[in-house]
Each structure stands twice: as C-alpha cells, then as structure tokens.
Write a structure and sequence with these properties.
The protein is α/β, with parallel strands linked by helices. Helix content is 27%, strand content 23%. Helix 4 packs across helix 9 and helix 4 crosses helix 14.
Length: 580
Amino acid sequence: MTRPYDRYRSLELPIPQQTWTWNLYGAGVERIGREGRPERFPVPEPGPDQLLVRVDAVGMCFSDVKLIKQGGGHPKLYGRDLAHEPTRLGHEVALTVARVGSKLAGRYHAGQRLALQPDIYVDGKNTAYGYTIPGGLTQFHLVGPEVLAVAGESYVLPLEADLGYAETALTEPWACVEAAYTQRRRLEPKAGGVMWIIGRQGDTTAYRFTDRLAAPARFVLTDVPPSLAQAVREQARARGAAVEVRDGVSGAAYADLRAAETDGAGFDDVVLLGPRSAQAVGEAARMVARRGTFNVVGSDPLDGPVQIDVGRIHYDYVAYLGNPGPDAGASYGAARNRCELRPGGVALYVGAAGPMGQMHVQRALELEAGPAVLIASDTNPARLGAMMSRLNGLAEARGRKLLAVGPAADLAAVVARATAGRGADDVIVSVPSSEVMAQAAGHMARDGMLVFFAGVPNGTFAPLDLTKVYRHGAQYTGTSGSALTDQVLVVEKTVRHRLSPARSVGAVGGMEAAVEGVKAMLDGRYPGKVLIFPQAMGLSLTGVDELAQKEPEIAARLGPGGVWTSAAEAALIDKYWAVP
C-alpha cells in the first residue's frame, strides 16, 4: 500500500504560485485570518540560507490558548504589533522540503521530510516557532537561520523513518510527554554557584556534608552548627572559595539577603537543616534561583504543609531534595531523586481524558516496565469514556489494569482501595490549577512522585507536604516543553513499535477547517488531538469517531478500535490533497 510520504519522496515537488495562510493579527480567535477566512500570498523563493518547506500536518495545541488570548502581549512576542507584523499558530508540524537555498544544497534536498523542535532560544531569549517565528498554519513558508542555524544548532530533525504526517507532527507533543520523565532538574550543587546553608538555633545535631562541598564558589552560613560551619570553612579555604556568616537572619530579611548575596537572582543551592516550621521553610524556598536546589535535611516532621511556588517547579525546574540526615550531601544525585514511573506501581492521572493526559496514560501502558495499575481521573465523563474505549484494548494486551474515575466517584476511596491505603506511587497532573495540584498531592504515597505537567504562572502557590521529601524520598517534579533529543526518542520508540503516536489523533480537517480546529481545541470538543492537513482542501473538521458516517473510505483504513493510521492518512490524501 502506498504510504502518504512515499508519494512525493523521489519526485520534483509541484509547487503552486500562491499559498493559503492563516495569520494571527491580534488577540482573539476572530483575529485569525481575515473575516474568518484564510488569505492567499505568493509562494516565496528561498534565499541562499533558506528552505522553502511544504507543511503537511499541524497539530493544534492547548498551549496556544495564551497566545490567542493575549496576542502581542504574549511573553514570547515581546510586545509585537500583530496588526502590522502578524504571526501564525502551529508549532506541531510535519514538513517536506520543497526548494533548497544554494548554501544548504549539501545538507537538505527536495522531498526530504522534517520534524521541527519549536522551543528555540537565542542568547537566552525564547524565539519559539509558532510564536515569535510564524508557525505552520500555512501551506508553504520559508525556514532560515532562525531555525536552521541557532548558535550552531539546527532545530529541524530530518526523518528517514517511516512515519506518517500526523505521527511526525505529533512527535513534538509526544516529546513533551517523554520530557516529563527525563531528569531536567539539577541534582548536584552548582559549580561556581552560591550555596546558602541555614541552621536552626539550638540544634545540636552533628550534621556533615559528604562529597558535595567542592562545587560552590561561595557559601553563606546562617546559624549553622559550629562543627559543620568549621568543615565548610576548611573546604572553602582549601580551594579558595568564599564564606560569609550571616547569623540571625530570618523571615522578612531573607529577601534582603538574597539581594545582597546574589544580586536578586536567588541562591543556586539552599540547604535547610533541621526545620520545624512550615512557614519558615516556605520563606526560605522563595530564595532559590532558577534551576536551583532546595535541600531539606532533618528527622522531625514539619508542623504542616509548605506553601510552594508550583509554577516554578514546572517552569524553573526548582528541585526539592532532602534526606533524614545527618549527611546533607546524601540528598543529591539521581539515586535518591527519580523521574521515571515506578515499575509495577500504581499511577494516578488527574486530567487524564484531555489530549495530553491521554498521552501520559498511553505512554505508561506502552512502557515496558510501567505501572501495573493506572487510575484515570477526569471531570468530563464523555471524554473519559472515549479515552477508555481507545485505550482499554491496549491495557488488556499489556496486562495492565486501567480504572476510570469520573466526577461522581470518590477518587480518594478509589486510590485507597487500589493501594491498600498507601497512596499512589506516581501522580501526574495535566490540569493547570493550583487547587487541583494540591488535591492531587494528597493522593500520593509518602515516597511517591508528583509530576506537574500542566503549568501555572510563576508566583502560584499550593500547599505541599515537604516532610515526605526529606523523610521518605518523595519527588515533586515538572517540565515545560521538550528538546530535539526528546523528539529523536519518540521517533525511535515509534519505529521500534514501542509507541504509537497516531492513537492520539482525535479529529482531522483540511486547510479551511483550521480555525474550527482551534475552536474545537479550545472547547475540548474531541478527546484527542486535532490535526490539520494544510494541503487538503474541502475537508471539514471531522472527529475520528465520525469518519465512518462522513468519510467511510477513510474510516475503512482506521486501525482496531478506530485508531488513526498512515493508511487512513493515505486515503485522506487521495481524496482531498490539492496538487497544482
């Protein structure tokens, strides 16, 4: 059977003179296109260091909501006047090289297929594709150094593997899911950084700090017990590091200390010895720098949950570490701080029936050493039912138990029954709500892992039990975005049949249906991802479960359980692909 990507691989690509395009001219869905319609623009010729690419598929992503709502006020647009300099949505794309600039002829060729990593940084500034760089809701566009040569790195991934267009576009969101279980936190003291060690007056514990004092360039000591303070001074003196003693600092004065010692950036590593007060722990935690570590060492429980900035766990990768003591150095390293699901455990998914939540559940089911029991919780019964229909067969085939928990059920009781009262080994939250995050944390085992996949703004606090971290090795983690290496992993797992990204497709549509696809994504109309095929003309937005009625010839190529396939994609192309 002809696969969709075979059709043009070895041919001179037919290229039209004009391209249909959905530009974003300001905040609001109504500002996508002109009067609800796409526009036509001339297809440009590539310059020497540019590629002309054809956009074959675009996934609609809920992370675009902020861009749609804020327009030029979005943080990644830096106050851009979209009315005069529009951008385009669409950062999950499958591309085919159409024409190659003269300087790139040795690296790329017409007919070559590409995936793209949109999370691009230039000198620390985010210039993401689909945001700062106009994205994929067009049929043809130019890709140049802003993507192909950023600090010596290209953000496109040439594909030699047999992936369909939808599968290729979905490598980006799937890479975000994979990244959630890849260690992004720094787990060792920062080389050349500033470490702040905070003791508790009257604490007589004989703390030590094995193997971890050789990295910081400067130490700040506050009420540290004399024996440990002396050990820090000796280590610092031996290698020329600085030591500042600032005893008696607490509470409101922490911010002044941060400003004085770090120019306001925050301490790279904070070590808290023998804390008792949750409020004091929360105040100290606010002083950690981006990608910093917060190491709590102690044997006694805190007097309550700690108000923690959960936005910073997700976006700033702040690592909360700890151990019962007395060795503060034992908190660090990968051995104590895991990021992968517990093999054979119980995993709870909150917001499981949304497109990204379903990906997390599916990944766990397809993971060779994944959890034995998966609890899928969602407030939308219809989407939850659709998810169960889609993934039940996979769960049975893998010998896993998949439980659905709707809004009418007692989630705490379900978790208690499934874990004999111990709590879930892993809790994955795909709902951007600090209240939901805090509730989810209550279902976690004392040595469990809580993954904040959905992000809330920095400065959003939720009460978390940090006693679990230092007494029992619990983990609070979160990730934002992905990298090319994550997409490479998704491609490898797909080719080896360890992952089936196409299961995530919930609806398909042609170029004219793009805005309807955006609206459907915003409304949560479909349980899976919305995929737009810009080269397809005349295909209205259609749920995969609606294809049997509306597009029977495409539906006939779906996989078992109504799953999207490359064969269904080929049928779509045969009927709707507009070749000039």
